[in-house]
């Protein structure tokens, strides 16, 4: 389908003028390795491989990843332009300007543009067209409109593509002018690919034999855990390395001179699910090392910057890996130098660099294609739904009890308790977990909008209820408390001195609470991890090991995300597939007044050998 505006905008000066492009790109350069650290369109250095005729041509792969529904440089939760401490800008429109400038400098015929997944989830813009005005009903997804305006050649599926169900994903797929690829998303019964596993693009350079570029898509197998309710019985997700061993030889047999992998999988070789799956979550480096005939990998999923090379263990050839951060903050540029070896094209050198999107203006072709949807969503998220008697901020939630997290836990526990009426578990106490994953979130005193409430919960997780024993609750809290570094004394400490031990992300630290001020516990950071939870009590009495509790928990955590104990095998007593963010919005809409005094109380604290710890922020 075509989503270009009916009357194309004239080419802006920053794209048409070579001098302006050079000026902007000089500001946008981030860094890289190899030949491509030279900015602008200088010819590739002459590299002659044995058995070649010396002809060298350049193929460029431009890439984005983890766009997460960001088109404009806009923070919907702040109702303002996006900004952060590192002066990053975000959005497809910014990334598009980099991409189109590089095409103009290098020659569009020699460039391919790819994405490595996580596209249709992450902002109110994406949520609106999945749930409020769903694309399954005929609307056009703004990410489809934006990416078509950029002119991508292919994109890999990310795990978040499955958040809204397969029907929404299929509707999105149909709206794209390019293929969605995933070689390891297969039919539950037959094992056949459920999406196109790969595509071969023919690059035709002037006066040269065409180059056949095979593009293979792969997604982290964690979809089977994180979106089990959407995929179980329908789709399976074999391992990345395991499936690539099958598919790369097929690509080569189909005539691919070059093999590029777009992999929604990080490089650190680690997994967040413990032993819940036999596959590796972040397998891109292992893929490069173990599967021959891959020339370059566009990396996604881990939201970091990567520019590196890895030697394949079997062939010794260097494989280029590049990950361009997330949300459109960076654009990857991977340059492959090719020569004819016995009449066939072969990569003889490679290099990569990253471009910073904050140096360029937004591409008007992209903003024009999405402007109407953006304005509609602004009206949606800024609608007033109630009032709050006292401002609530999540800024300090990772190291002290706050009303903001208490609110989330209260709403979750309230929903589960109500649903248990008339069931065998109706008499059990209900607790809840929530993570402080958005330190910027706050609900103001006075009028409250959808945007304010949604900012407390930036993911599209759904709510479940599971049953744990008292001993299992303590195990769970011990796992959560490993987020803190071991320190002695009571401070004052800065937040960085006591939190994020072993680089544990904030979203893997859970705070437990409930409907009332019934659950209390201390976290003793002077003790080693595994021995930190003290004074664990419910209704004033020490929690017995055999006591039973219903825990309100999100689908990511219950499915094994973060590797918390007991949750994947615990009995599930509630699962209505309702998004937690929408529950918060619905609760505020129904009650009209958010009064922290009705649900917030000190439930937990940090201590050092029993004495309260002071953290200054």
What topology does this entry show?
Layout: H1 13-16, H2 18-28, E1 29-33, E2 52-64, E3 74-75, E4 80-81, H3 92-106, E5 111-115, H4 124-132, H5 142-150, E6 154-156, H6 166-174, E7 180-181, E8 186-187, E9 198-203, E10 211-219, H7 223-226, H8 228-231, E11 235-236, H9 240-253, E12 258-264, H10 284-290, E13 296-299, E14 305-311, E15 318-324, E16 330-341, E17 344-356, H11 364-381, E18 384-388, E19 392-393, H12 403-419, E20 430-434, E21 442-443, E22 446-449, H13 450-454, E23 462-469, H14 470-481, H15 495-498, E24 511-514, E25 519-524, E26 533-538, E27 541-542, E28 548-554, H16 555-558, E29 572-579, H17 580-591, E30 593-594, E31 604-608, E32 611-612
Parallel strand pairs: 2-5, 5-6, 6-7, 10-12, 12-13, 13-15, 18-30, 20-28, 25-31
Antiparallel strand pairs: 1-17, 2-16, 3-4, 8-11, 9-10, 14-15, 16-17, 18-22, 19-21, 20-24, 23-28, 23-29, 25-26, 26-27, 31-32
Explained architecture:
This protein is α/β, with parallel strands linked by helices. It has two domains: 13-39 and 59-378, 4-Layer Sandwich (Purple Acid Phosphatase, chain A, domain 2), CATH 3.60.21.10; 383-612, 5'-nucleotidase,  domain 2. Helix content is 26%, strand content 27%. The chain contains 17 helices and 32 strands. The strands form eight sheets. A seven-stranded mixed beta sheet has the order 1-17-16-2-5-6-7. A six-stranded mixed beta sheet has the order 9-10-12-13-15-14, covered by helices on one side. Strands 24-20-28-23-29 form a five-stranded mixed beta sheet. Helix 3 packs parallel to helix 5, helix 5 (142-150) packs antiparallel against helix 11 and helix 12 (403-419) crosses helix 17. It starts with 12 loop residues before the first helix and ends in a 5-residue tail after the last strand. Mean pLDDT is 91; it is low at 1-8 and 35-51. It is found in: Cell envelope. It holds the Pfam family 5_nucleotid_C. Keywords: Hydrolase, Metal-binding, Multifunctional enzyme, Nucleotide-binding, Signal. Its main location: other. Residues 111-304 form the Calcineurin-like phosphoesterase domain.
